[in-house]
Design goal:
The complex is a heterodimer of chains A (427) and B (550). By secondary structure, chain A is α+β, with helices and mostly antiparallel strands. Chain A has ten helices and 14 strands. Classes of the chains: A alpha+beta (427), B mainly alpha (550).
Amino acid sequence: MFRYLPEQGSDYAGTVDNINNLVTDLSVFFTVAIVGTMIFFAIRYRRRDGVDHETPHIEGSTFLEVIWTVVPTLICVLVAGAGYFGFEKMRTLPVGEEPVEINVYGQQWAWSFEYPNGKKTSGDFYVPVGKPIRLIMTSRDVTHSFFVPGMRSKMDVVPGKYTSSWFRPIKTGPQVVFCTEYCGTSHSNMMATMRVVSEAEYEKWLADKGRTQTPAEEGKILYTQNACNSCHSLDGSRIVGPSFLNLYGRDGVFADGAAYHADENYIRESILYPNNRVVQGYGPPSPMPAYEGRLKDDDISKIISFIKTVKGEAPKPAPVQSEKSKADLTPDARGKLIYQQKACIGCHSLDGTQVVGPSFKGIYGKKGELSDGTPYAADDAYIKESILNPQAKVVKGYPVPSPMPPYQGQLSDADLNDVIAFLKTLS
Amino acid sequence: MKTEAVTSHSSELNYLNCDKSVWSWVTTVDHKRIGLMYLFTISIFFFIGGLAALLMRTELAMPGHTFLPGDYNAAANTYNQLFTVHGVIMIFLFIVPGIPATMGNFLLPLMIGAKDVIFPKLNLLSFYIYMVGAAMALMGLFIKPIDTGWTMYAPYSIRTPSAVIWMTGAAFVLGFSSILTGLNFVATIHKLRAPGMTWLRLPVFVWALYATALIQVLATPVVGMTLLLLIFERVFGVGVFDPTMGGDPILYQHFFWFYSHPVVYIMVLPAFGVVGEIIPVFSRKPLFGYKAIVVSSLAIAGAGFVVWAHHMFTSGISDFSAKVFSVVTFLVAIPTAVKVFNWVSTMYKGSISFSTPMLYAMAFVFLFMIAGTTGIYLATLAVDVYYHDTYFVVAHFHYTIQGGAVIGLIAALHYWFPKMTGKLYNVPIANVAWFLIMFGFNLTFLPQFVLGMQGMPRRYFDYIPEFAGLHMVSTIGSYINALGYSLALFNLLYSAVYSRSKAPANPYNALGLEWQIASPPPHDNFHEIPVVTHEPYAYGKPAHGHGGAA
């Protein structure tokens, strides 16, 4: 009775439907039983000819109260348990299988899709039958929700955050996709069609793409353009920040002892707000500048796609220079070490090219104009101030406020003198 | 047995005719008059909210753009405004004040043997705060009707050009009215019970009001804060919920549901109380398991505070939170089931008369069984993922709120009508209206369960042709439902003004204190404070002598 769910399209749809049908049968049984009892009492004990008959004074029954507290409790435990384990199945990707990952973007009022090979589409999208499909979703404006009734899957698509869902289509054919979180005027037209096709047909469709760069390739360009490479290696070696090698999916511990799992949301947060949560051994504070407002949401998705591809065997960590040997170095060599360790290298080149900040080549003694028009000369005092408090004086042509983090409290005066000694060698 | 004799002459001055001037009404601190003023006002909003629903159902009768004026997009916008207006008005202006502010105000002092609530002037202030909030909501409707849905989810509500500030401001102000009424009721129940009216002699309607008032006082400030943050975000660009300003949209949902889940119990607990009053009187039996019913009201009020995120299983909260909130949600099911069993058992070996209030009470049990069991689907995690934000949810909460709270209010209006007006209503018309409401309501919302099962999302102006037939059935049902409500309320209003049949003080031979005084009650309720010597539902004791013919 009351079996109205659409045809099952995913491997877990059967589980969902079984739980649904269990609840339906229990509901129908109890509704009929209780309402039936009420109607029976109403007829059996009705007041005939408008005359009251004598009624017993029954205030209750502890026995019955216990029965009808315990029985519903047991049924609730049963149903809650079924829902719990069904949900577990719906949320857990099968182990040992590479899912087809598709980036899904919601915006008023259309769905668009991006495949790992760079294929982009909107409205219609293809998935292969029999394979786990993982959707990594985010919104470009307001909250939407991605609902595929045939798959029994639904997940909100939230701006500023990644959500994901997965399913394994079990039959070929079109599946309707609805937006189920109200999003404005054309909410009811924000639909898409998911075409479940054979793997061969899927590969053929996927290969026919309009452009050559994959999101991961674009991500790699962004990785260099934004100077991520100056602190994050790809080969497992530690420069300043953690290497990107095998970063995606890693489990680790923050400086405060809390555990983390390096998923999409974690990477996104680390890029936008590096100091929110810093991995143990890397601060706090993190020397990384915040990329909030400097990278677009789509760029972050591409960088994440790139990071996912950086996998492989990690080489042995390089020996760390000890404190003792440091003291033996010349001041300008110590300055160079600081330049590398404090990630100055990320924004200040040594060869005259401008990365984010001015190059250090020939910077000592340089004269010029600040952003407010006053002249400056790069003497010892000026350089020290620029390192400790970058906002105090920003050189004309560079962004105000400066994206550089202040090094106040991180470098001693001796350190600063070493850095200046190093800069003097770069004329 | 009461010590106060049942003495009231129909010629005596009562609360209605003691001073007939308009000024005496607008400045009244009499809880009975304040209750009637609320009743009159919320009836107007019930009408406006209902009209919005009928316009929506008319548009939805067939797929495509069919009825609303303008081109496709203009009609879609109008539709979005209609469902928002329907939701905001029905929730904040009609059903939240609903039973507590109308019947609660009128009955609470009468049922506990008091001359008024403990803070009569505060009570009037609550009413005027409500009127200010209502005026703000209407302003919002005239300026640019809000199109966010009653949930006003961020960041959509931050970016839409419609008059969000007016409407959220209105809901913020209305919250204060609700808090003050709740505060007044809690203090009244604690301090003004008549001698002998021990806690376990309180009528279950008073217990229900008590549980409701606790929720009003504790939960309403949270929604006030949330709406204020929303206004701040819109006006000053303070990023709390909008991710482009560094906010978190899911935080809004947590804040919103922390109030708006308990608010469901603000709506429906008083209706439970009404049913608990009606069934014993028309069965001539004590309320079965009185203590269990009292405890379950408090348990529902308490558990209602810790289940809010079951509205958010697919919102992007962690899987762990979803699991915890699903399991906790089942805690609400158990006390609710206990109540239903107790109501039905009360009828066992009774002497049951099918008076109109009893018909509504029985309808309530039937509708609430459907509301409750469909709630189980939505608490069940794996199944809710499928049903969330579909018509299944729409049907479920209409069974809860209309089938529960509104039917409870209509039942209460019929049951206490003789006491409130001193007159009798036309019974055949009332029963026809009952049938139309029951038939129309089920015809409207049963098909919506099926639509939800088939995957029809909610808040859709247009839909794919597969869903067409059931939408048509639902629309026809909504017209019959509206006809039923109109007939029922017209019958009551007409009888209140024009009926010549005078109601006796105690037409049902009921034991409640409110029935021991004249109909309508005198201005000061009890000339002498009564002394209570027995439990509230002492029916069926052969020695009692109250079980005689009606």
